[in-house]
Amino acid sequence: MSGLFVELTAPNGRKYSQPRGLFINNEFVKSKSGETITSINPSDETEITSVYAAGPEDVDIAVTAARKAFKDPSWRDMDTTARGDLMYKFAELIEQHKETLATIETWDNGKPYSVALNEDLAEVTGTIKYYAGYANKIHGQVIDTSPAKLAYTIREPLGVCGQIIPWNYPLAMAAWKLGPALCTGNTIVLKAAEQTPLSILYLATLVKEAGFPPGVINILNGEGRKAGAALASHMDVDKIAFTGSTATGKEIMKMAAVNMKNITLETGGKSPLLVFDDADLDQAVKWSHIGIMYNQGQVCTATSRILVQEGVYDQFVKSFKEYVTQASIVGDPFKDDTFQGPQVTKTQFERVLSFIESAKSEGATLESGGEVYKDVGGKGFFISPTIFTNVKENMKVYREEVFGPFVVITSFKTEEEAVAKANDTTYGLGAAVFTQNITKAHRIARLIEAGMVWINSSNDSDLRIPFGGVKQSGIGRELGEAGLEGYTNKKAVHVNLGTKL
Ligand code: ADP
C-alpha cells in the first residue's frame, strides 16, 4: 500500500477516508524512508491499515515547518480573538466528525464506542473550546516599583513545542496538549503513539479545514525510539510535553537536556484508594470498580492499590467481587453494553498476563479473573477483570504499575498506617479516600503525597482542574488555568522613567 489515503469500512459499518501520511505544513506526505507502522484491531487481531512512520529526517522537516510558522506574522501577530475563533472552529469541526473519530478510536484502541464517543470526544471538544476562550485572556502585569521605574511583563509563547502522546486516550491526550499550546501562540509537532496511529491523522484533516496557517500544527506517527527521540533531542524544539511511562519520561528528560527544553511530564502511577471503617461501603465499591477497571485499566491515575481498614475488609472484598462480576461486562467494544474491551496490543496483553503470573508465584490470593477472556470470538486481547488479595508490600504487583484490569487489595489497622502505606511508593499521581468523617478526609488529603486526591470518589478529572503528579509521576500540570503555565514565558520589561540614574 503506498497511497496517502485509504477508503476503509469500520466494524460498525462506518465508511471513511483514512489518511496515511505525515501531516506537515497542512499537507499529508510520505516518510522519507518509506517506513510504515501497521495498525492492528485489538478485538480480533486483524490488520486495519498501515501508515507512514517518521524518522529523524521527517522530524527535522516538521520542526523547520513549525519554526517558520512560529515566526510568520499570520500566526505570531494574529489578533488573539481571531486565534480563539480559529480554535473554536476547530472544536466545532471535531464535534461534526465525532462519530467517525470515535469509530476510529474504538477500532484502533479497543475502548468501548460509547466511551469514545460520549466521554473522550466530549473531552476533546470541551478542552479545545475551553482553551479557545483563553486565547484573548493571556496577558502580563504592570508591577509598580517606584515613580522612576516602570516594569511590566509579557506572556510570550515558548516557540516550537514537541508533544508526545500515549495510546490510552489518543485524541483526548492530543487535545490536552494542543489546547494550551495553541491559545498561547506556540507551534506544534505532535507525535502519536505507534500503537494507535489512526485517529490523530483524521484529526489532522480538520486542522487544515479549520484554517490554521501551514506549519502551526504538524502531526507525525512514528516509533518512540526513532521519531520520539528525534523530537526530544532536537536542537530547535523549545519544549517537550510528554504523557507515558515513567521510564520513558526519564529518558525524554535526559534528551531534553541537550538544549535545556522546557518540559512537562505526566507519567505513571500506583495510586492508592483508602476505605475506612466509617465509609459508605456501596460508594466505595462502586468507585473502586470505576477507579481501576475503566478504560481496560489503562489509565495512569487508576486506583490500582485498594487499602481497606480491617473492620470492613471482608465485607468490602465480598461486595467488590460481586460488583465487578456484574458491572465489568467484557466484550466487543462496538456493542452497547460492553464496559471492557480488549487491551490495546498483544504486548500490553502479555504484560498484564505476566503480572498475573507474578502475583500467583509470589503467593497472592486470586479472588477473580486472572485469565484470558476467550468469549469474544476466541480472538483479541481480552483479559478477565482480575482481583488479588493477600498482597504483601514487597510484592511486585503491589509496587509496579500494571496498566490493565488488575487490582490488588490489602488491609490496614489505623489512620497512620493507611497514610504510610498510601505514600509507600515512588509514584504520586492520584489517591482516593473513602470516609464519612469530613475532618479525617481533609486531614488525609493533605498528608497524601499525590497531585490529585479524590474524596469519596476516584479518578474524577475535569478540564478546568489541574492534572498532574508529584514524585515520579511527573513534572508540571495540564488542564485548567495551570495548564497555560507550561506554554508561556514571562518576559519582564524594565522602563526607566527617571533622569537621575
Ligand atoms: P508504553 O510503554 O506504554 O508504550 P511509552 O511511555 O513508552 O509507553 O510511550 C508513550 C509515548 O512515548 C509514545 O508516543 C511513544 O512512541 C513515545 N516514546 C517511547 N519511547 C520513547 C523515547 N525513547 N523517546 C521519545 N519518545 C518515546
Task: Lay out the secondary structure.
Blueprint: E1 5-9, E2 15-19, E3 22-24, E4 27-29, E5 36-40, E6 47-52, H1 56-71, H2 73-76, H3 80-96, H4 98-109, H5 113-134, E7 142-146, E8 149-157, E9 160-164, H6 170-183, E10 187-191, H7 198-210, E11 217-220, H8 224-232, E12 239-243, H9 246-256, E13 262-266, E14 272-275, H10 281-293, E15 305-309, H11 310-327, H12 346-361, E16 365-368, E17 386-389, H13 396-399, E18 406-412, H14 415-423, E19 430-434, H15 438-447, E20 452-455, E21 474-475, H16 482-485, E22 488-496
Parallel strand pairs: 9-10, 9-12, 10-11, 12-13, 14-15, 14-19, 15-18, 17-18, 19-20
Antiparallel strand pairs: 1-2, 3-4, 5-6, 7-8, 8-22, 13-21, 16-17
Helix pairs in contact: 1-8, 3-5, 3-7, 4-5, 4-7, 5-6, 10-11
List keywords for this structure.
Aldehyde Dehydrogenase, Chain A, domain 1; Aldehyde Dehydrogenase, Chain A, domain 2; 7-stranded mixed beta sheet; 6-stranded mixed beta sheet; about 40% helix; globular; binds adenosine-5'-diphosphate; Ald_DH_CS_GLU; aldehyde dehydrogenase (NAD+) activity; NAD; oxidoreductase
What does this structure look like?
This protein is α/β, with parallel strands linked by helices and 501 residues long. It has 2 domains: 5-267 and 476-489, Aldehyde Dehydrogenase, Chain A, domain 1; 272-460, Aldehyde Dehydrogenase, Chain A, domain 2 (3-Layer(aba) Sandwich), CATH 3.40.309.10. It has 16 helices and 22 strands. It has helices at 56-71, 73-76, 80-96, 98-109, 113-134, 170-183, 198-210, 224-232, 246-256, 281-293, 310-327, 346-361, 396-399, 415-423, 438-447, 482-485, and strands at residues 5-9, 15-19, 22-24, 27-29, 36-40, 47-52, 142-146, 149-157, 160-164, 187-191, 217-220, 239-243, 262-266, 272-275, 305-309, 365-368, 386-389, 406-412, 430-434, 452-455, 474-475, 488-496. The strands form 6 sheets. The chain has a 7-stranded mixed beta sheet with strand order 16-17-18-15-14-19-20, with helices on both faces. The radius of gyration is 24 Å and the shape is globular. It starts with a strand and ends in a 5-residue tail after the last strand. The chain binds adenosine-5'-diphosphate. Adenosine-5'-diphosphate (ADP) is lined by residues 164-166, 191, 193-194, 224-225, 228-229, 232, 244-245, 248, 251-252. This is Aldehyde dehydrogenase-like protein. The active site is at residue 266.
